């Protein structure tokens, strides 16, 4: 986990990643979670590139960060964690509007 965390540049995002790892139980359940952690750390790095501080994390900024994921599945664990932790609604009007304007 420390090696993954070291790829994040900002302290506020490292703290969010640590919370994510703790809440996901990766530390208690060691095993074949390497690919999942690698994918999730990539999601955190994409968000980090999109926003400048944790208060800038919104539905739009997360969707913008994950815009390259055409399957809408690759970062779903990270997106769901942000939805739960920061109370972001990825099915509400803000998300619908972002998706609409992204395809127009």
Descriptive keywords:
104 residues; mainly alpha; globular
Describe this structure in a few short sentences.
The model has no long low-confidence stretch (mean pLDDT 85).
Please give a structural write-up:
- The protein is mostly helical and 104 residues long.
- It has 6 helices and no strands.
- Helix 3 (34-50) crosses helix 4 and helix 4 runs parallel beside helix 6.
- The relative contact order is 0.14.
- The model has no long low-confidence stretch (mean pLDDT 85).
Q: What is the strand content?
A: under 5%
Number of helices: 6
Rg, Å, rounded: 14 Å
Which shape, going by the Cα principal axes?
A: globular
Count of strand segments: 0
Q: Classify the secondary structure makeup into a structural class.
A: mainly alpha
Helix content: 55-70%
Largest sheet: none
Overall pLDDT score:
85
Low-confidence stretches: none
Spatial gap, N to C terminus: 40 Å
Which H/E pattern describes the elements? HHHHHH
